[in-house]
Amino acid sequence: MAEQLTTDALKPMSDIQIAQTRTFIDGLEQGSTPYWDAVEIGDELARELTLTPELVVLYADGVEDFNPWYEGWTMNGWRAEGSSPFGSAIVPPLLVSHFVLAVQFDHTKPFSIGSIHTFHESEIIAPIPVGTTVEIRTRAIDKYEKRGRRYVRHEVEVTNVADQTLYFRELRDIMSL
């Protein structure tokens, strides 16, 4: 008979990953509201994110985008200014889009089961220098039904916390079951 695997036996999972997974599953057991019911038009959520060289390395490696413009680090010194046609090293343009869902779902409420990201349209306005702290802000702007399915549309803006430079804008739809 095959050996029974437990969550903790699935490696590589750190103690933090195991704890976060258990917290997530416990939250699902608290009950969940469909995303359609949990969001009202005009709802806004925002979080700050520092786009460190380490975060850029993890993202670029994950998507296999090895562009020297993103290299704000060196092997022996770790942090370095780097260079690109825009001056210092820049963040891969769609890295911030990856973090929108972490803002879009209100972490103080139970997770909405059955939400599917169905559409996004990104507008890259300016390069983001590695090391910048940005605010990712989402706002629910529409709720609509199409072919019997319910959708919530959000607009997203990513700005520099220090000087409010607008770097990135996006529209995205979430289908709620």
From TrEMBL:
InterPro entries linked to this entry: HotDog_dom_sf
The protein, known as: MaoC family dehydratase
